[in-house]
Structure prediction request, 241 residues.
Amino acid sequence: MMRGWLKATIGLAVLAGLLVGADRIAVGVAEDEAADRLVKSGQMSQRPDVTIEGFPFLTQAVSKKLDDVRISSDGLTVRNNGQQVALRSFRAKLSGVEVSDSLNSATVDSSTGSGVITYQDLAQLLPPASQLLGGAPLPGGANSRLSLSYGGPGKVKASLGPVSVGEATVHNQGNTVTVDGLKLSSLAEMFAGLANRKVEPAAFTLDSMPAGLKLAAKDGVTPLPEGLQLSFEGKDVKLLG
Prediction:
């Protein structure tokens, strides 16, 4: 009798192991297919890493709704009117992903994410410094740009060549990001010959966002030492199809 119980226990353990193995193989195949579909659909500029959380996967697949999907990539890009810059350290969590049998379509109940634009790239998205100064000629030429760096919580520093232009706040309304509050110091006025010049607010609109996301309505942009962090959100997002 003991032998029969032992054999049954071993058999169940082997079966459980096979089922777990099959589940992990299935989820790996689904993750690879999802990554390929995201690129083909145009939702991502580069093939991301996709992780489907939760166990078992096969029961989620049968219900056609995935509880928690994670997407990450370090090589994506975002655009502003044709100007393209890198979006680094992109991470997103998609909750309630409903998929079709063939993975041709997918919708997401809610999603959040983040990524970082370096200050050097951020400066490329802003208009040339001469435009921000009302068309005034600059020593560096008409296409010279402000240099940006971290200025502390909620702030970025700006400089024109070796001369500081001051600190600015960064905020967003929808997918439009605005840098404002810059003011020429007396030293900057002397250096550039721009006495009594006001620095206009600089704005750009991101028209290419990963995974159907948009900038968060609250605190969508946050200056960090490594760059400008973008915070994303989405509700009822059409991910594929």
In short: The two ends are 57 Å apart (CA to CA). Helices lie at 2-40, 57-63, 119-125, 129-132, 186-192. The longest strand covers residues 83-99. The first helix runs from residue 2 to 40.
